[in-house]
Every structure is written in structure tokens, then in C-alpha cells.
Task: structure prediction
Amino acid sequence: MRKMFSYVLFEADERFPRFLNSIPYILLMNSEIYPDFEMKFFVEKSCQDTDRFKLLKEVSEQFDSVYIEIIDEPSVNLKLTIWRMKPLWNDDIDYLFCRDMDYAINILAKKSVEYFLSQSPCIIHGMRSYKLHSTPLMAGMCGFEVRPVRRKILTLAKTFEEYINFGEEHVDYCKDWRWGCDQTLLKKFFGKARMYPFILDCPQYDAPFVLKGFNGRLCPVCSYSSIELSNCNMEVLRLSNSFTKFTGKMFFHRDFQFDSILKLSHSEMSKFIKERV
Result:
């Protein structure tokens, strides 16, 4: 079973320097906490001259679980954020999870992902970590069982390019690709495709509020918090958990944090990175 995390790296976002610095953390933490997952990075062409990209390229050449796709088109505001969704149409994988570059893995998020993979009949996974999150699908915290989802959305978009076209035609935020375009496109597209009944909504706090008009499956913390985690480096997971107050919170990486992760890391990818940073 092929499971993949999808990321996008581009310069137009004001958080770009933080995204660049996140590359070794993402590689380390995923290799330790999600050792059976693949990672795909969509990278704007202009980012290739950075030292962090060169590290990412070295890792991708050494490990077949890391992929890079260069985006060779002009960046229009924040349009490139939606490229995280491209594997839903283009990759031969079983599960796709879209994540932000500055995302730190925590215990609740890990458990809800494992619950979705092992126990839920739903084919879409959503996490909400803040009470202002008023949609079950956050652009950097969503996941999909690829083949059944793909079959259900083909009438609206047979290709990733048609997904982009849908946004330009039906979503105001995508007219100029401003902040929130990826989020509003997700909401509009999957609403139009009548996919909400297939969503597993996993709030990341103890008192979830029911989303207005949502007819999918609500999965409160009590449903997945008891999931036992075995296939991961628990020391690294606990450390990563201590770096962030809630799921999806922006993570400002510090050198001392990186050093502490390195000391607890044992994967082959971690050893490879240790020799190069």
C-alpha cells in the first residue's frame, strides 16, 4: 500500500524562508514517525539554487521514497499551493495526505491518520485544530483514499488541469489566486462533487463543534485517541509533539530542536542527513 505526503515549495509565500528551513525537519520526522510513507515535493523552478533544495535533491537521489517535481510555470500569487493536490490525479498511490511545509507532527494528528487508515470506512480525512476552522477540509491537513475519490470526482475534473480550471471558473479566490485560494477551492470542488458524506472529520480537541450543514462522519478525539502507535519512533514523536501547541500550528524551527531530533533519530535517511548538515 503506497501512502504519500505532498508538499509545495515556492517563493511567493511570505513564509518561504521558514519553508526552506523546514526541509530537513520534514525529512527527519517523516522518516522516523511515518517510515512507510513516501514524500513528494512540488518545487518552484527558482528555488533550485538554495542549499536546502540541494539537500532535498541529494536525499531524493538516495532514497526512492522521496520525489521532487519541478514546477516550470510562472507563479501567480499563491496559485502553486494547489499543486499539493496533483497526485490525486497523477500518481499511482493508494493514499494522499496534503501538508504545509511548516507543519510539526503531533500525537493526536498521528493517531487520527492511523485511525483513518485502519478503522474508518470513509475515503477522505480532515483535521480541524482551531475553532475558526469552519470546514472539514483544511488545505494542509487533509487526506484521500486516492482511487475511490478519483472515481467520484472524474465528472468534475478528469485531470489536475481541469481542477485548476474549475477554480478559475467557479471560485472567486482563484480569479487572482489570493490567500485562501487552495482552501476555498477544496470546499467548493468537493461540495459540488457531493463528497461531504465520505469525509471523516477529526477535530483535534476535546469539545468539537458540529459544522453547519456537514453530513459526513464526525470523529471526536475519544474515537481515535486510544489508537496504539507501534510503527514509529515514539521518542521523536513525543519531541515533535512538544514543539507545537495544536495540530497544524506554524512551526518555527530552531537549531537546538533540530539537534535534539537528530540525537533520537535512527532511520537510514536520518543517518544520511546527519552527514550533510
